[in-house]
Specification:
- Four copies of one chain form a homotetramer.
- With 288 residues, chain A is mainly alpha-helical.
- The first copy, chain A, is 64% helix and 0% strand.
- The radius of gyration of chain A is 28 Å and the shape is flat.
- Chains in contact: A-B, A-C, A-D, B-C, B-D, C-D.
- Chains A and B meet through helix 3, helix 9, helix 10, helix 11 and helix 13 of A and helix 10, helix 11, helix 12 and helix 13 of B.
């Protein structure tokens, strides 16, 4: 768990010898969130990010784009220049620029402005700017830092502990949808929309996960019988990941009891932080 | 938990010096549910509320409205006048009218008749009268009061304890649907119904939550592959809120720790069967 | 829990003074499942029930009904006469016919043949014969009786223990769909299929439960935003009944430890059925 | 649980007297995964299996089949010959060929090449080759063998422990969909797509499992009311399998009991830290 904390909020690129005073100060503002300036920088950044994501989204709506296209385009370039400057400043004031550039946030920061420049070459690339929303993950740094990071770590820790079980589960799901998809392809055929095995597997996933678009549906009695089977299967095996994750969280919530026994009366099952026996009051922990 | 009990069934507006006898009696009937008159008032009120909600609903059905429109309109005005009078009586007999008016039920009580008057100015406003159904939450006050409130408190308490985890979860969901929605907008385009990023994000929510209307569905192989990914993701991460809530309820069901504090060092949170303080070894249980 | 066992497999109608020998014997065959004859009667009955349900189902398929209509009609009358005779025999050999006739299985047994006679008066009534499938619940009596009844009791016991929490949950769901349904009715209107409040409430239920037929879907941006809200709500609050039921089952699975402490060494936390202290071997239970 | 391990990774067909040296060596390569040659054989096999599954899938896409049909057909025959040879080699080098041929993997291995030969007689049979994907279950043997098998065993063990509860649950689901399907058939009739009871039962399954294709939807108010009932039922009773499985996993995660049996009275199932038998007080742990 502690491992994860380190990885998610990795500051390795900021460890090492001190920088020149102005770079040190800039570093505190941009990367830190303890000082007043750092906190304000973070809040401003998040607001700007959200505004820029909304601008990209609105620009994609035809009716809005027609009316306010020019202003949105200008805003977009403004945000992009801002993020470019910010990225360059981060590279300048960080201790190990190359490690930062390859870190999770380093890559996200780059992707948050690059697509607009790429849109000169590839039409539509500018819409990938919405990836900026991932930058807001930084929000957890300012909103009561410790608490939220702790909660995230419990959730991610339980996920990591059950990753092997989840892998086994996902593989089983893939095997089920492949076999059922192929069966339905054979039974239903072109007319009902099951025009190829990949498409039928897509249908099986849509059905097993209980999404059920209805764009492809079986029409033969046998096909409907198999579809009903996969539905009930999907309805029942949702219990598997839920059970795995619930059990893992229940376990991580439990405070284990100490296995130290009292030297005087032999009672065990004390709380982990107990210093004295709950039965006879004898001291049970070493004077460490 | 105790906190919540206070907040949901807040009677602060009714605390203070005694009122004149008739206002005191009216108060007991309208706000109380212990006396026979108070109980009958509550039951009558709930029946009238449910009838009025049904009347609003029926009035919205074109075929019924044509035939019984006049009678429904008259009924509606009758109910509204009744609730208006009731609201005024509540204001009169309560100890602190202003606190009541701003409390949860105070606002609901106001909204339960206001829309009909507003319907003179805004067409359709009268349909908001269905908000009256929220008034029936009061039902928990009469149906074996203590038990139901206790159950509600356990459920809400577990929700409140896991609110930070749920917030982290919801933010992740929003980030996923934004990124996937934008990807599908780029890949599928206008023809398949992905006409703008907000609409594509709407599609991503419909898919991730396994609702799956089928009004917008991907038609390209790559789009269907990404859709399958988001479906399996949605199918698997339903485990997260379920796991959080289950684990929280399991914890709240488990034998609590004793609330006896040590007289010597003040430590509390001892095991229920502890005889000696785990911090200082002082005896904590009476020689009973 | 024991209560439930009694209620589900209630044999009160069979308690009392002994009957004449032949009625006693018939009773053992029809109501009992311990004797060989009783077991064979039960198995035959279940097979006949399933066959008759299949016959009713096939008769409803137009193409099959055309070809095999006569034979299916004859079979149906055969099954119905059989069940009528069986019902009369049950009434004859039971100790308290009137109590049997009003019990759960007594009513189901009556409904399992009555509709065919009623079909003379009401067209279509014969299709209600599928209610016969409920008679197969008796299967639990023969399939390793005790084990299955035990499992059913654990499941039903946990449901009963959480019935108040589930009631609170269901009421909240109803309040949510009423309010959201009315809002969507106001926003979307006739064109999108939201033609009345009851229909809009129906749509809200389809959406909240993540069924998502797609026969009615919002088309305005505001409507889609509210729909997305109700979807995420539905996706998240599925955690509530699941959490309630999981926590209840986890509780019912746990074997509590004894609170007896050893008189010699003071160790507590023994297993409930322990006779000797696990720490020092001293006898801990009274010689009762 | 230990039982399951034996069954899933059954090597009974490989137990017995040693074989001639070259068969022994071949056996180690094909059935074993400890030696370098055995590991490489397994990895190559899995890659070939996945490639052949992809080839079958691509061949089913009309546009791809037209262009690359010949090459895919040749590849398919190559894979099939390869698997045929592999199957024969397995039969040759295994100790008890007949037991292998009837084991889970023996049957899967046969099905993985047979359909192509059968496609001479039955058109479309070659698509069943995707069943090959099940062969990849062998992957668990090489990917950190012990850990994954352990995880699978926990998941399957919990499923087996709850199989009776799940059976009771599935039967209830079938009873519900039969009764509701028949009701909707009576109420809605031909026009809305409810053309027969089996089709209406199919609709009820689609609705109860919250799949919701929308190909058949009720249109009468009463039908929609019943549909809403079955939706909320389906939404709520998903809690049952999830609760069962979660509770079972929570139990399997909890500290197990010791498997030491008392030498005096034979009682097992002592607590892990017990020093004396709970039945007769005899010391059960070695003086280590």
């Amino acid at each position: 768990m502690t491992n994860k904390k380190v990885r998610l909020h990795d500051q390795r690129f900021n460890q090492g010898e001190p920088l020149s005073p102005w770079r040190e100060k800039l570093n505190g503002i941009i990367f830190g969130s303890e000082s007043t300036a750092g906190k304000w920088f973070d809040i401003t950044l998040i607001i700007v990010i959200l505004l820029s994501v909304i601008a990209v989204m609105l620009d994609s709506v035809a009716s809005i784009s027609e009316q306010y296209g020019t202003i949105l385009r200008i805003l977009e370039w403004g945000f992009t220049l801002l993020f470019t400057v910010e990225y360059i400043l981060r590279l300048i004031c960080v201790r190990k620029p190359w490690i930062y550039a390859r870190s999770f946030y380093g890559i996200i920061d780059l992707i948050s402005f690059l697509p607009l420049y790429l849109s000169f070459f590839f039409a539509g690339a500018q819409y990938m700017l919405v990836i900026r929303i991932l930058r807001v993950l930084r929000i957890f740094r300012i909103l009561k830092l410790v608490e939220y990071v702790g909660e995230t770590n419990v959730l991610i820790g339980a996920l990591l502990n059950s990753r092997r079980k989840i892998f086994v589960f996902l593989y089983s799901v893939l095997a089920i949808v492949t076999v059922f998809g192929s069966l339905l392809f054979l039974i239903e055929g072109e007319a009902a929309g099951f025009s190829s095995i990949p498409k039928s597997v897509y249908w099986a996933i849509v059905t097993l996960t209980t999404v059920g678009y209805g764009d492809i549906t079986p029409i033969t009695p046998l096909g409907q019988f198999l579809a009903a089977t996969i539905m009930i299967l999907g309805y029942a095996i949702i219990a598997v990941p839920t059970g795995i994750y619930s059990a893992e969280l229940v376990r991580s919530f439990q405070t284990p009891l100490s296995n130290v026994a009292c030297k005087n009366c032999g009672t065990s099952g004390h709380q982990i932080d107990a210093h004295y026996c709950r039965e006879c009051g004898t001291q049970i922990d070493e004077e460490a």
